Amino acid sequence: MRTPLVAGNWKMLGTRASNRELLDALAAGIGGLEGIECAVCVPYPYLGETAGRLAKTRIAWGAQNLSEHKEGAFTGEVSASMLAEFGCRYVLVGHSERRQLYAETDAVVAAKYAAVQAHGMKPILCVGETLAEREAGRTEEVVLRQLEVVCSLNGEASFKAAVVAYEPVWAIGTGRTAAPQQAQAVHAFLRGRVPAGTRIIYGGSVKADNAAALFAMQDVDGGLIGGASRVAADFIAVVQHAARAAQRKG
Ligand code: PGA
Fold first, then answer.
1. Is the pLDDT of residue 1 over 90?
2. What is the pLDDT of residues 38-65, one digit of tens each?
3. Residue owning the nearest CA to atom 3 of ligand 1
4. Please, what are the domains in the chain?
5. In three state form, how does the secondary structure of the chain look?
6. Which atom of ligand 1 is nearest to the CA of 228?
7. Considering the entire predicted model, what is its pTM?
């Protein structure tokens, strides 16, 4: 059985005060939940405080990006070893906002993935097509290319220590979710390209009211949650839906 993962992607949101409240509410609400993994991927400056507040819980923490370089004169960048020092378990790589707004190529994403694994953390590799690509019938071609570049640099076995997140770009932050069957179709396609046991999670406008239907899909092993991860009650509800779905799938 694949243990589901629900990861929050806080993006560039929050303040020290609002984060404290959120983290304490998550610790109280889902900090001891078993049979499921949850994590929050927070902005860099908040990692230390997040680590402290979640230390006694089962909730993991991580980052949303990192440098592909080991160390050196890369002003403004953050390395994998720095993130590892803060006890990060997960690091997002290849989020569509990084690919689109910061021109991250598949090759850079693959190098970042390698850096995460070299420091004993797990990359959450985000893949997904734009609306134009979907409408042109190119969804499978696009996600396969994104996966294969990572695979050719890191090897297929590397996926055993990674998570794949299918995030259709048209569903991110738009309130427009993939229908459960649409998500399942892409997840099943990806499933055939990664080693057995690799978790494939879905992201894109997952909320408390659509999570149950998405997580009920056979190949959807949890979610990557943006907007709803900033509201404690919503994130807790999403995590509980994932835990219930996992129990049903057995
Ligand atoms: P969303 O974001 O849930 O707000 O659509 C998902 C993501 O960007 O990972």
1. no
2. 999 999 999 999 999 999 999 999 999 9
3. 226
4. 5-249 (3.20.20.70)
5. CCCCEEEEECCCCCCHHHHHHHHHHHHHHHCCCCCCEEEEECCHHHHHHHHHHHCCCCEEEEECCCCCCCCCCCCCCCCHHHHHHCCCCEEEECCHHHHHHCCCCHHHHHHHHHHHHHCCCEEEEEECCCHHHHHCCCHHHHHHHHHHHHHHHHCHHHHHHCEEEECCHHHCCCCCCCCHHHHHHHHHHHHCCCCCCCEEEEECCCCCCCHHHHHCCCCCCEEEECHHHHCHHHHHHHHHHHHHHHHHHC
6. 3
7. 0.97
